[in-house]
Amino acid sequence: MINDYQLSTPRYNLFHPAYWFGDIDARPFALFRIAFGALMLKEALYHLPLAEAFYSDMGILPRHALTALGYETFSLMNSLPAAWMVMIFFAVWAAVALGLMLGWRTRIMSILNFVILASVINRAPLIATGAEVAQCAFAFWAIFIPLGRFYSLDARRSKFAHSTAIYAFPARMIHIQIAIIYIFNALIKMQGFSWPNGNALFQALQVQLYTFPLGDWLLTNASLELLRGLTHLTLLIEGGFTLLVFAPILQPYLRALGLLAGVGLHVGIGLAMNIPNFPVIMVLSYLTLLDPRWIDWVEKWLFKRGWRIGRMEIIATLIIEKSGCSGLIGQIGRGAFVGAGRGALALMLMGLMGAVLWGNIVDNDRIADSLGAPSMSSAVQNLLISAGLWQSWGLFAPEPLSQDTAFVIVGTFRDGRVLDLRTGQPPEASRARYFIGPWSRWNKFEENMGRADNTHPVLGPWLAYTCRGTPGLASVEIILRTRPTVHPGQPFADYSSRRMAGRDCG
After folding, report:
1. Which of 96, 157, 191, 385 has its CA 20 to 30 A from that of 393?
2. Within 10 A of 22 (CB to CB), how many other CB atoms are there?
3. Hey, how many other C-beta atoms are within 10 angstroms of the C-beta on 358?
C-alpha cells in the first residue's frame, strides 16, 4: 500500500492494470452500503402511503391502463392487484433495506433490493424519476461488490473479518456509472441553447412544479448575471467532475476538489429545486470515491473519543439472533463469487456495462450519429428496460422544461361546495405543491400527464379513484393549467386552463 501522496499512484492511475484488476479498500463501499440502505429504507416507508393511489388496480395507475400505454415490463408487482398486497410488498422492502444497511446477509439483501427497486419503477413508470433510475443502477452494480466486508454483521462471522481488501473491477463499475451520469448530462446540455448562453437556470426556475421557495425567491430577486453565472458553474462542475475525480495525476487533491464541487452543486440544487432524491443519491455515491486515508483519519479521530463501530454491530447481532431471524435465509448466497474466476467476472461485467453505455449513446441521436453507433436491437433494449438499467441523463436538457404544469382536481359536492380536492381551497386560487414527503411523487406524474391528451388511458382511473376516495362528492373534473417559460427580457406569461376529463360520482 502506498502510504504517501505522490504525483501518480496505481490507486488513481486508470491506465495501470492494478487499478482495474488489483485489490482496493472495502471501507468506502461499506459506508456507501450503510447510507444507501438507509435511503432505501426511507423510500420503502415513503411508498406505503402511495400503495393504493399509484400501485394498486383501484388507484390512478391500474395495470390495464399501463398495458394500454404499452408498458409491459417485468415487475414482481404485476401480480399484486390490491393495496394491502402492495403494502406488504413495501414492508418486505423495508426489511430488506434494513438488512442491507446493517450488512446482514449482504449479498442476498443487495440482490433483493435491486429486484424490488426495479419492480417498483416498472410498476409505476409515470412517477419514476431520474433519482430512481440512478438508485436502480447503483443497486445493480452493488450486487457484485462484497459490501458486507466491513462495518457489517456479516463481517463479524466471516472469514474475511477485518480484511479491507476487495476485488477492484466490480467496484469500478459504480465509478463508471457515476462518470456516465455526469458526462452524458453535460454533453446533452451542450446540445441546447439555454445552457451554453446561461439562461437555463432562469427558465428552469419558472417551472414551479420543480422549485422550492428558495428557487421562487431566486427567480424574483436574483440578478440575471448571477443566474447566468450559476448556470455556467453547473455546466463547469458537471463537465469537469469526471476529469477531476478520475485524473491519474495530482491525486487525491483533484478528487477532493471534484467531490467538494459536486457536493456544493447538489446541495444548491437540493435547496432550490424540488427534485426528490437525486441530489441525495449522487452525494451518497461519492462515498465510494473516498480515499482510504481519509477514512483512516476519521477512524483515528473517533477512536480517540472512545467511539467503537463494533458496539452497533454487536447490539444488532444480538437482536437478530435472539429474534430467531438468522435462520430464515440460511447460507444462500454466502460467499457468492468467492472462488469464481476474476477474469470471468470481469468479462461479464464488461459486457453489461458495455450494454448500458451503448444504451446511453443510442438514446441521444446526436451523440449516436457523431460516434457512428449502431442501433440497438429491441431485445437488448427491452432487457435493459426490464432490468431497470435503461438510462437517459438529459436532466433539464438539452433545454429546461418549456412549460410549467399544474393540475387542479375540481370537486363539486352535493351540498354545493366547489373545491380543489388536493388543497381544500377554491379552484381559482389553488395550486397543490408538494415539497417533501411521499406525495412529492405527484410532481413527476403531473409533468408526464401535462403532455397527455384528453384520451389518455389514465384519466378514467384517476377520476374513479377520486370519486371513491371523497365522501359526498357529486362530480369531479381534472383541469390542466399550463404556462410557457420565457427568455430573459420577456414578460411572464399567464396560465391557460384546459378541461381534460370529468365524470359524475353518483
Report:
1. 96
2. 14
3. 18
**181 contact partners, CB below 8 Å, separation of at least 6:** 134, 282, 393
Residue 478, all three cell numbers? 381534472
Q: Provide DSSP, 421-481.
A: TTTSS-GGG------SSGGGHHHHHHHHHTT--TT-TTHHHHHHHHHHHSTTEEEEEEEEE
Separation between Cα atoms, residue 109 and residue 316, nearest integer Å: 16
Domain ranges of the chain: 25-329+350-386, 403-504
Count of residues making up the chain: 506
For every residue of 276-327, DSSP letters joined together read TTHHHHHHHHGGGG--HHHHHHHHHHHHHTT--HHHHHHHHHHHHHHHTGGG
- Give average pLDDT by consecutive 10-residue segment, the chain, 506 residues: 52 89 92 97 96 96 92 90 97 98 95 96 93 95 93 77 80 96 95 95 95 95 96 96 94 95 96 93 97 87 62 40 36 39 88 92 90 88 82 89 93 93 86 88 92 92 94 94 93 92 92
Task: Match 359536492 to its residue by C-alpha cell.
Answer: 413
Helices (H), 69-209: 83-102, 106-123, 130-142, 153-157, 168-190, 200-204
Q: Is the torsion defined by CA of 287, 167, 170, 340 positive or negative?
A: negative
Quote the DSSP letter at residue 231.
H
- What's the grid cell of residue 506? 353518483
Helices (H) and strands (E) in the chain, counts: 21, 6
3-state helix, strand, coil in the chain (%, to 5): 60, 10, 35
DSSP letter, residue 25: E
Query: In angstroms, how far apart are the furthest CA atoms of the chain?
Result: 77
Between vectors from CA 229 to CA 223 and to CA 231, what angle results, nearest 5°? Answer: 105
Q: What's the CA gap between 189 and 235, in Å, rounded?
A: 8
> In one letter, which amino acid is 219?
L
